[in-house]
Specification:
The chain has 11 helices and 14 strands. With 349 residues, it is α+β, with helices and mostly antiparallel strands. The chain has 2 domains: 4-132 and 320-346, Aminopeptidase (3-Layer(aba) Sandwich); 137-316, Aminopeptidase (3-Layer(aba) Sandwich), CATH 3.40.630.30.
């Protein structure tokens, strides 16, 4: 089969992503637009068949490396390609190479995602990267079936805390843009308490404007007596939903507002057809290590694992990050000197 490299327009690209079996939020054009407002440059590379139908592709995010070392090309949860079709993969990689080099990329970093057992990514000219941008390990909930089945998969403490949130009169609502200031305040408190970084308020305003009006996201807030206690941003594409950002205050913790908003987010995702709910990030450790250490450790993602583990999900791991090198000198400098610095500044992309 002959493949034609194309640059798909945003609408066509989003139709392709949404229908793809490996569809992911971070490959939507709106995510590229969001990151484009904060230091990245989004570029889509597609492959069309002889009839002009888009059959594979990837959204790249380009970012300038420090010290004028060129650019990094990054593909979060991509490319969207049939990895079993060598000809298709080779054609897409060639098109990506051309685009990346046109933009001065010193190397390409891909994080293809999950369910790629048996795929030999190295055979396509990639090398394993010691640094990931997205958390490589996560908890995924099965939210198919009825609500009783979902609740039955949770541990007893989580079910009890969901009931407490209702019993203690936490009011749940879908937030408006006016609620983003309160959500950002809660995020800042949560980030300080749990020792992880959060984006500036403008980032969440942009995300809200891009995803909430078309129905791809919701801001769920929980309050008591007029005071916001917790909030989450939840996104959905096809059969998947993602809990990307969550926040809560130490005030009125006995009301378990964080459980109330999370349960409401799951219900929102189910109403949009999602059957899998990605809680997006736990410590990158095997299940037995997670279970033996979660009560003792609170650094990084350990601080949120105790909460996420109780929702009855499956711990899964992605294939991690893989790099394709265009400039070996720059890549060596990146690996030796600035690798941790650059990735540390990226945040979730």
């Amino acid at each position: 089969m002959v493949f034609e490299p194309v640059t798909p327009p945003p609408d066509a690209w989003d139709v392709f992503v949404t229908a793809h079996p490996r569809a992911h939020l971070l490959q939507l054009s709106a995510w590229g637009e969001l990151k484009g407002a904060f230091g990245w440059r989004p570029v889509c590379v597609g492959l069309a068949d002889s009839g002009g139908a888009l059959i594979a592709g990837v959204q790249l995010l380009l970012r300038r490396l420090p010290f004028r070392l060129g650019w990094l090309a990054y593909a979060p949860y991509g490319p969207l390609v049939d990895w079993s079709d060598t000809a298709q993969v080779n054609a897409l990689v060639a098109a990506v190479d051309h685009t990346a080099r046109q933009h001065g990329a010193a190397f390409l970093k891909i994080e293809p995602g999950y369910d790629l057992d048996g795929v030999d990514i190295a055979a396509h000219g990639f090398v394993p990267s010691p640094q990931t941008v997205q958390p490589p390990r996560t908890v995924v909930l099965d939210i198919g079936g009825d609500e009783d089945s979902i609740l039955a998969r949770m541990n007893q403490g989580t079910r009890r805390n969901i009931r407490k949130s209702d019993k203690y009169e936490v009011a749940i609502r879908e937030g408006t843009r006016d609620d983003l200031a309160s959500f950002s305040t809660l995020l800042a408190e949560t980030g300080s308490r749990s020792e992880f970084g959060v984006h500036i308020p403008a980032y969440y305003r942009q995300a809200f404007d891009l995803f909430v009006p078309p129905g791809r996201a919701a801001l769920i807030m929980g309050s008591y007596d007029g005071q916001d206690l917790a909030g989450v941003m939840v996104y959905a594409v096809g059969r998947w939903a993602w809990y990307i950002s969550g926040a809560s205050t130490d005030r009125e913790r006995q009301r378990m507002a964080s459980y109330g908003v999370q349960w409401a987010a799951i219900q929102w995702a189910r109403a949009r057809g999602a059957v899998y709910y990605d809680m997006y990030g736990v410590p990158d450790a095997d299940a037995d290590v997670l279970e033996t250490q979660f009560s003792e450790r609170h650094d990084g993602l350990w601080g949120v694992y105790r909460f996420k583990r109780g929702w009855g999900g499956e711990i899964i791991r992605s294939v991690g990050a893989w790099d394709r090198v265009y400039n070996r000198i720059v890549y060596r400098a990146y690996r030796l000197v600035i690798d941790r610095l650059v990735i540390g500044r990226m945040g979730n992309a």
